[in-house]
Amino acid sequence: MENIEKLKKAIAEIGNRLVGCRKHCAGVAHGKSDDIVLPRYLVLETEERTRQRGSVIVGINPGQIWRDETEYYKEHGTNYETMVDYWRIRIMNLKYYTWLKRIPDNLGLRGPILWTELVKCTSKVKGTLPPLETFRICISNFLSKELESVPRSWPLIAAGKYVYQALAFRFPNRIVIGVPHPTGSYGHFQKLFSKLNNKKMLKVFKPELRKMWSSGCGKAAWLNAKRKRIE
C-alpha cells in the first residue's frame, strides 16, 4: 500500500483524540479514585503484514480493564502511544486476536489490519452492553472517521452477529463479512475451519467471499458456521 505512512498518521491522530475523550457516555466505565480507564484498542497492525489489500476487524467494545494495564498507564502515561505499546506487549497474542487474524489471512488479505471497536470504552457492568445511543455517538465520532481514512477496498470483518448487523446497516457501501465471536461459548468460530488444520478455512466459504472483491463495494455476508453456508 503506497499511502501506509499517511494512514498511520491518520489513525494516530484519531487515536490521540480517542484516549482523550471525556464524553462520559452512558453505560461505560469511567476512572474512579486511582483507577485509569481509557477508551482503547484502536491499533493499526503493520508488522509482518505486506503492502497488499488490508482489512478492518471490528469488535463490539473492549473487555474489562486489567489491574496491570492500569498500572502500566500509571507508569508510562495515558496517551495513545502507551495504549498501543500495551496492546502489543500484552493483548495482541490473546486468542481473540490471533484467531480472528485467520479470516483475512485465509482470504488473501495480507496487508495491514486495523483493529477497532464499535464502542471504544469498557462496559460499566461486566457482561452488559452500553445503550444504543452510546453506540451511535462513538461510531459517529470515531469509527466513521477511521473508515474515511481506510481504503474502500478493505473489507470490514465483524466479530459477532451484533457487530455484523451494526456495520451492515451503518456502512452500506462497504464490504462487510460477519463471523461468530472467536471466543463465544458455543464454539461456532472454530467450525469455520478444518478439523485437520484449524488455521485453514473450510473451502465452502471461499468462492463466494472472493466474488465480493470483484463485485464492487456494498456486499454483506454472514458466515454461518453451523450450516456451513453464507447468508
What are the defining features of this structure?
7 strands, 231 residues, alpha/beta, seven-stranded mixed β-sheet, 8 helices, Uracil-DNA Glycosylase, subunit E, globular
Care to describe what's here?
Helix 7 links the parallel strand 4 (156-159) and strand 5 (176-179). The protein is globular. The protein has a single domain (4-230), classed as 3-Layer(aba) Sandwich (Uracil-DNA Glycosylase, subunit E), CATH 3.40.470. With 231 residues, the protein is an alpha/beta fold. A 7-stranded mixed beta sheet has the order 1-3-2-4-5-6-7. It has helices spanning 4-19, 67-76, 80-91, 95-100, 102-106, 132-149, 161-170, 206-214; strands at 43-45, 55-59, 113-117, 156-159, 176-179, 220-224, 229-230. The chain contains 8 helices and 7 strands; from the N terminus they run H-E-E-H-H-H-H-E-H-E-H-E-H-E-E. 37% of the residues lie in helices and 12% in strands.
The CATH architecture would be 3-Layer(aba) Sandwich
> Remind me, CATH topology?
Uracil-DNA Glycosylase, subunit E
Give the CATH class. Alpha Beta
Order of H and E elements:
HEEHHHHEHEHEHEE
**What value does the Rg take, in angstroms?**
17 Å
Q: Percent of residues in beta strands? A: 5-15%
Strand order of the largest sheet: 1-3-2-4-5-6-7
Number of domains: 1
The helical percent reads 25-40%
Overall strand count: 7
In DSSP terms (H or I, runs of 4 or more residues), the helix count works out at 8
| Mean of all residue-level pLDDT scores | 92
| Largest sheet entry | 7 strands, mixed
> What structural category arises from helix and sheet content?
alpha/beta
Shape: globular
Query: Could you tell me how far the N terminus lies from the C terminus, measured between alpha carbons in angstroms?
Result: 31 Å
Low-confidence stretches: none
